[in-house]
Prior knowledge:
mainly beta; Jelly Rolls; 3 domains; 44% strand; disordered C terminus
Amino acid sequence: MSRSNIAGFRVSCVLIVLAFGLSPCADGDNVIHNGSFETGNFTGWMTEDIPNRPNLNVRSGGTPGFGLFTGAPTDGTFFASHNFDGSVAGLIRFGQDVVIPRGTATLDFDWRAGWDFRFGGTVTEPRTFNVNVEPFGGGATLHSFSILTTGVGPQVNLDTGVQSESLDMNAFTGQAVRLNFDALVPQALTGPGHMLVDHIRLNSNPVIDINPAFSVQEVGSPSWQPVDFHTTSGPGTSFEAFLDTIHLPLPEPNHRLHPDLGVGPGDPHDPLYDQELGQGLANSVLVETTTFTPDQFTLTNDVVVTMFMVVPRGGAPIGSSPDFASGPIIPNSLFPIVADVTIERADATGEPFLPFDSGQSVVPPLDGSIDPPLSVDGHSHFPLFGGDALEFGPAGTNPVGVYRRTWNVRDQQGHGWDIVTAYEVVPEPAAVCFSGFGALSLLCRRRRGGIPTARSRRTGWFCES
């Protein structure tokens, strides 16, 4: 909305921000976070080890002895490794919840292993190394990629050498899943071993739908991005009416009103979020369009509403949000994210644009600074909405014209996006309506977007004598 009093409510910015708690990606098109373990630890990963002899760790070198190979990274300085052995049978695992954009994707990584089964008890069950795909947040295995199966008996292989894998992940594009790197030791104390994994990349070639009415330009290297762009109109006669309008594409139970956030978190729901606004809009009474009539551009009726979603890019930090305990987030440290907005108007296409309105909005972190407070690591996603009306511009402005809205959105590191969209306000069309008693000349107006009146729900038209 604009800097105007709306039914007694001061709206301090040109857009309303609704925040809660993903797509080209932060590390190129790699959606894995910390895949080469260059943090020096398992940041972003969930781990599980054999309890009686925990050995899973991030290292820069070393060997467990017994003639087994000395580990070395295949990318950077560090790698993940373990002894591929146990004093009890068990599973050695590290995994990550990821969002795989629509398109094509491969999971690439390096591994190296060695073992000597001449020590200890007789090996009757092979040790295995698999990559298992589970639902986002964990659950029953959806697919298992077999990477290594050792032999049995007194087998010896002190060094497989570095092996590079490339797994087809196309069956999981457009989904959120958990990837587990699982080493299974089915028998205890059956001989020493050594395994390392490094340079994990989930390389995606995403299909990104950009509404042709919007242009998007990256500034710096943001770990988040705008997606799912739409324009419509709906009631804006008061602040509450506008909140009700922008709640329509993000309804309960997944989204609820919050005093400091507008439409805030509701029931947790898993990614993907890159089509959530569009799907909600299609299921609402709002109509998507970029052409409006003057009655859809006035506070006495409807306002023009532009909207898009902001999501983490691939390789974004992993943490908690209102939607999950662990997953890709836009961390609180990047907030407040500030959006400076300008709106310009031209009399017609090709004519020069002149200032119409401007303002600023601030997206807060999801922490104790909001009331009621939240205690999570960041946002899983948040939308931005803008509401425009004739009353927000200079007095005496003709509503008919072409309007251009520019969003300059920046995080606390100065990274962000410039987003430009345009829409047109056209004169009310005139028509002749016919009654059962003959032709009656009436001025008729067809609603091009927004919430229809009771009569236009039936016919798409309403008429005035």
